[in-house]
Amino acid sequence: MAETLQKNGSLNKYSLTDVLVDIVSESPEELAAQQLKEAWEEVYAARQNNEILKAEIVGIETNSIPSGGTIKEMLCAIVYIGPIKGMIPFEMSGYEKPHELREAWGREIIFKVIGLDRESNLFIASGKDAISHLQGLTWDRISEGDTVRAKISRVNNRSLILDIGAIPVVLPVDEVSRGWIDNLKDHYKEDEVIKVKITRMVKKEKGDSAPILRPLRPIAANKEATEPLAAPAISEELLTTEKEPSVEGFTVSTSIEEPATISSEEAVQQKCVLEVSAKVLIPDPWPECVNRFRKGSSYPGTVSGVVEYGVFVKLIDGVDVLCRHTNTKVGKVTKGSKVLVRISDIQADEKKVSGKITERR
Q: In the 3-class helix/strand/coil scheme, how is 226-238 assigned residue by residue?
């Protein structure tokens, strides 16, 4: 027998079997066991295949970690894969200072699984290994002249710190824009993605001494960092790699094979110079500027910055006039002021314009 339902002015027929609810026979305990099994399969697969994982730091704890035959109290970042707890000791996190790790809660971190404690449902991981691995892959993929997307990890007044495939790159303000920028913090935010062009890339030859590029320092959260929490000691077997327990229904290999395409830490050490520019991707206004502006003529503009040695006035995108400080007749100007500038000199070869502010609106 079928029932009818009035819908949007039309009749639709539904069979009673269409609305029957599927009955799930699994108990909460069985569901939890299945989730745990699947999570361990993911952990073992990540370890055996040398995979990079990413998870949110959900806590900061002080744990007893086996190291060099002894047990040490270590500050750890806490992550989870399903219901399985992971610990990333500070020394393996990639952060330079303990307070930086404490301030990283709520942020994502990349890591590799390096040790297991199946009975305690714990694993230990290394952020440094993941960073070195990802940097190696990035170096193998990019080339000089490439245009890539870069994530802004920190904004300073006169520079941006970029993350390009885990490689930290400093982008000075002179390479951000063709025009004058008074303070980069007024224009950019952390985690924003911009396009840059690789202008210089040096790969060190094997055997040369070169430091590993350090990971990017995290941005402090607006909230207070969580205090370290006491936690039970971890089994001595946590860092053992000779023997691994099996998961029901999942074959575990005792050997870890390195994929041929993965660069080792030694390879990362050989490659350490990367320079980029966002400015070169912006059309150059100077061919038009030479024909548009004339020496001795006056043009309206907006004050883009005030420094010790003068005032910068933006005429068009990419063209800022450096003017002497205004006199009492004109009055004080600030960033954003609308002014009239008389051009006193145009140096086309050096792409510089100087002038004098004659009026303020």
A: CCCEECCCCCHHH
The CATH code that applies to domain 131-215+276-281 is: 2.40.50.140
Count H helices and E strands in the chain, helices first. Answer: 6, 19
pLDDT of residue 276: 97
Give yes or no for a contact between 103 and 94, defined as CB atoms under 8 angstroms apart: no
Q: Dump pLDDT digits (tens) for 280-321.
A: 999 999 888 888 999 999 999 999 999 999 999 999 999 999
Given this chain, do its domains 28-127+218-261 and 286-360 carry the same CATH topology? yes
197 in helix, strand or coil? strand
pLDDT at 55: 96
pLDDT at residue number 234: 43
- d(CA 118, CA 261) in angstroms, rounded, equals 30
Instruction: Please state whether 50 falls in left (phi above 0), alpha (psi between -120 and 50) or beta.
Output: left
**What CATH superfamily classification does 28-127+218-261 receive?**
Nucleic acid-binding proteins (2.40.50.140)
CB–CB of 297/320 below 8 Å? no
Structure tokens at 126: 């290394």
How is residue 321 written in tokens? 């006039």
Mind giving me the DSSP string for 42-84? HHHHHHHTT--EEEE--EEEEEEEEETTEEEEEEEEEEEETTE
CB 116 within 8 A of CB 127: no
Q: Is 16 helix (H, G, I), strand (E, B) or coil?
A: helix
Bridge partners of residue 73, in order along the sequence: 64
Q: What is the pLDDT of residues 7-30, one digit of tens each?
A: 555 556 666 566 666 666 678 888
CATH of domain 286-360: 2.40.50.140
Domain residue spans of the chain: 28-127+218-261, 131-215+276-281, 286-360
Residue with tokens 């009492």: 328
